[in-house]
Amino acid sequence: MNRIFGSSASKKPKPSLQDAINSTDTRVASIEVKIKKLDGELGRYKDQMSKLRNGPGKDAIQQRALRTLKQKRMYEGQLAQLQQQTFNMESAALATENLRNTMATVEAMKVANKEIKKQYGKIDIDKIENMHYDMEDLLEQANEIQETLGRSYAVPDEIDEADLEAGTLPSLEEDEESTSYLADLNKAPDFVDEPPVELSEVGASSSSNAAES
């Protein structure tokens, strides 16, 4: 029975909106061809009437021209309706496409939202804070290690008064004694009572003694 009468599953699918637009565009193209043909006929009638005098022959051509003009206007009305239908269907198709894109965007956002919640659910704030505190402790220990490695092993960190008297002061006294002999050279000996004689005075006394002799 299904082979003879067919089944519901064998029915043709309903035409889509794009199919309807394509069919209407085909009809529009066909009507435009007819209108162009009628325009050619009207042009020929106009030329014929311009060459004829008033009379039965001219009146017959004029009646043909009027029928052709009415037919052209009828096709022009159909063409305007079909063009309006095409515009409406294209607007509906555009709205449908925008809605489809919007729904796809919404679905993608839902999936992303679920994934974000899932990932954030794996994050423990307390663990992050503890890790932060551990990092601060490690950095502080690293600074202490650097300070320890930067210490000088030759000079003690602290010097008390005993070390100063035992080490530093004797060396300073020795330095003062070593430099004090320079000042002693400028002093006169203890057995000289008079002040030292200048060289100029010695030269003058020698010349006076030589004159007297």
Characteristic terms for this protein:
Helix Hairpins; rod-shaped; 79% helix; mainly alpha; 213 residues; 0% strand
User: Regarding quaternary structure, how should these chains be classified?
Assistant: single chain
Q: Could you report the average pLDDT, rounded to the nearest whole number? A: 76
How many E strands?
A: 0
CATH class placement of the domain at 15-99: Mainly Alpha
Instruction: Give the DSSP E fraction (strand runs of 2 or more residues).
Output: under 5%
Query: Residue ranges: pLDDT <50 for 5 or more in a row?
Result: 197-204
For the termini, the CA-CA separation is: 181 Å
CATH topology tier name of the domain at 15-99: Helix Hairpins
CATH architecture of the domain at 15-99: Orthogonal Bundle
Elements, N to C (H/E): HHHHHH
For the biggest sheet, the summary is: none
Relative helix content: over 70%
Shape: rod-shaped
Rounded to an integer in angstroms, the radius of gyration calculated over CA atoms is: 63 Å
State the secondary-structure class: mainly alpha
Region (Disordered): 1-23, 167-213
GO cellular component, one term: multivesicular body
Keywords: Coiled coil
Pfam family, one: Snf7
